[in-house]
Design goal:
2 copies of one chain form a homodimer. By secondary structure, chain A is of the alpha+beta class. Helix content of chain A is about 35%, strand content about 30%. Chain A contains 5 helices and 8 strands, in the order H-E-E-E-E-E-H-E-H-E-H-H-E. In chain A, the strands form 3 sheets. Chain A has a 3-stranded antiparallel sheet with strand order 1-2-5, with no helix packed on it. A two-stranded antiparallel ribbon of chain A has the order 3-4. In chain A, a hairpin with a 2-residue loop joins strand 3 and strand 4. The relative contact order of chain A is 0.12. The model of chain A has no long low-confidence stretch (mean pLDDT about 95). The interface between A and B is large, with 129 and 129 residues.
């Protein structure tokens, strides 16, 4: 354990001051994240992420970030991007990793490396609507973490538990997230 | 309604032959999608998508696709990529769009354009572990679709329902998806 600042590349003082900030003003902890999507053609579409709302104000400071989504030829696409269910694994991977690092850092644990692997089972008959018995979503997602740090195996297990406990994407998947989809009528 | 091939940029014959293929051989409809993640430092990590398993075989034909994930400065990051909960919206956006297009195409409906907007509510106190009452995952996600096609408002509503009914990411979020997270021990 060390008390370097930054620890794990995180400015510890800044992190604890952010925690105090949101603890004292819960309304400012309410964030809204956003994306837009434009269909390009076939299974190819493009998503954009730019602004968000948080800490009581709109943040429009970031450059727009664009993401191409497509399917492989086997699924009638042209490989112009990863497919949506792969992006879901990307989201989960980043979220578990960041949750782990943030909470390790808060505990003063120095991490040398974290790597993880994700695999999800999808029965295409669900998407294609050809079998009512087939699940449409992922049947199961498996995640494996490798952590390099001067801590015990039990402490590593504890980090894996903390990653799950505090990851928004993990919770969004494992609980039922309300998703309201509407047609915009002009 | 037209019967062009391709319709909406999708090779209709190829799509229907894929449907027959998976209908007749359900075992081949079992896909496994994957990602890996490597922590870079702080809130920055990098995910890679490359191979998948499907139609009874490994597909390693794609080039690796890399995704940077980071947080904005307000959340102790350096804007080196969209954040994990934003990637989740990207995944949802691509999936609803592709499900809508695929099922519209199967019905012979020609689409001129589809655009959509996503917004999710996140209470940062959940991630930070400073309030047991705060939800960790998205509290709610709202989606708005704009569809341009020569069909009635009711038919557009029907496309919005089909997008939800057949989208794997939508189902993965709105149902409880089992996510098993383990420490890899050497």
């Amino acid at each position: 354990m060390t008390e370097k600042n930054p620890l794990n590349g995180i400015n510890v003082e800044q992190m604890f001051s952010a925690i105090e900030f949101f603890k004292n003003q819960p309304a400012l902890a309410k964030f809204k994240f956003r994306a837009t999507n434009k269909w390009i053609g076939g299974t190819h579409n493009q998503a954009t992420v730019k602004d968000f709302y948080g800490a009581g104000q709109e943040d429009v400071s970031r450059e727009a970030m664009m993401f191409d989504l497509d399917e492989p030829p086997r699924l009638c696409g042209n490989n112009l991007g990863a497919n949506p269910v792969e992006y879901l694994l990307v989201a989960l991977s980043g979220c578990l990793t960041t949750a782990m690092i943030a909470h390790a850092t808060a505990k003063g644990i120095e991490i040398r490396s974290v790597e993880s692997k994700y695999e999800g089972d999808l029965d295409l008959r669900g998407f294609l609507g050809i079998s009512p018995d087939a699940e449409v979503g992922y049947e199961q997602i498996r995640v494996f973490f490798k952590i390099d740090a001067d801590i015990s195996a039990d402490q590593k297990e504890e980090l894996v538990r903390m990653a799950q406990k505090y990851s928004p994407v993990f919770h969004s998947l494992t609980k039922q997230t309300p998703v309201l989809v509407q047609l915009e009528r002009k």
